[in-house]
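Researcher: Quick one. two chains, 414 residues in total.
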Amino acid sequence: MTDANKKFQKELNSGIAALVLLGVLDQAKDAMYGYQIAKLIETHDEEIPMMKQGALYPVLRSLESSGLLESFVNPSVSGPPRRYYNITESGRETLIRWMEIWDRTKGFVDRILEGKADV
Amino acid sequence: MYRDVRDYLEKLKRELEGADPALIQDALSDAEGHLRTALEEESVRTLGLSETKALESIIEKYGTPSEVASAYRAIESRIPPVLAATRPQDSRSLWARFFGVLAEARAWGAFSYMLLALFTGIIFGGWTLLGGLISACSLLFIIGLPIFGLFLLSIRGIALLEGRIVEALLGIRMPRKPLFLDRSLGWADKFKALVTDAYSWKSFLYAVLLFPLGIVYYGVFGLLFVLSLSFITSPVLELVFHIPLDLFGDNVFTPVWFLPVVCIAGFFLLPLTFHFAKFIGKIHGRFAKSMLVRK
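Model:
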């Protein structure tokens, strides 16, 4: 990926990461820890990963400090203690609003790129 | 190329140089947790490979220290601590600023911290002193070593919890993630790392000092608050309900002509108490940061 493409992807990711993380945790049956979330996202990703796993952690923390996620630490048998994340009620409500915004944004960009907008 | 997890963390720390120490601690803790978990969980796939080789593909997905550092810096700039000062320039008049303190979340946060400090001081300080004494005595026997190690671990837990309280109430950025001990180390080396880490001892000292500090904070701010309220309500209490002022066991009625002065003094003492709480909160926050954040 060229530098310009990387920069564009990075700028796009800054907002998308929060939406993706809320989406993943909204669908999760149980609380998930960072590595688990990163692996799940990886399975949906293409050959060239869209976002670095290391960039997910500060977003998780930011979502938690905004009250959209809650977390707890559990010791692990095989590795270091893990921080598990759950989506909060406010997180679910926010996700619904963000999905609407995402749909509008996606539709708008598609219309422009497909040349359906009145120029 | 990274020799091992420690090498990666060193490089990440260098990339984050100049950032808030609490942010650095969080980023290192996240990275260490992820990389070690990945090494454990992918051990079957990477069987026979050296840690250096196994890490290569893990770090490719996790991001280079420079990529990860820039992600943390970018997000940190958007999420200041909850009660951190957000007003860049206060254009209010002197009076508005003086009395407006009663409407400031940060002042109430600092005041609440001062009252809560009695309980946290007793619990954290008490545990540190008592637990320290018991585990130090147990060191006379061989069984004492793990007990002492567990005690030092509990101090780290207390440091993290106190850090969360300081950040929530005093608005000072503190670590949000626990510190991990290198899992590749044996028990003896883990114990050595715990004992020789200045962070363990600074946290210990902080918890001990919180004991007397908590008592002083609670005493001073509790007294000032109650005094302000009793001054403000003294005209009503004395003239309407005939409740005298209790001065160290003596029931005294304030001369009627002096009651308005006492009442007005109460109205000034209350915001003054909150300004004082904010000031002490700021100093205590800096003290907590210097003691509870690993440099």
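The longest helix of chain A spans residues 3-27.
Researcher: Thanks, that's what I needed.
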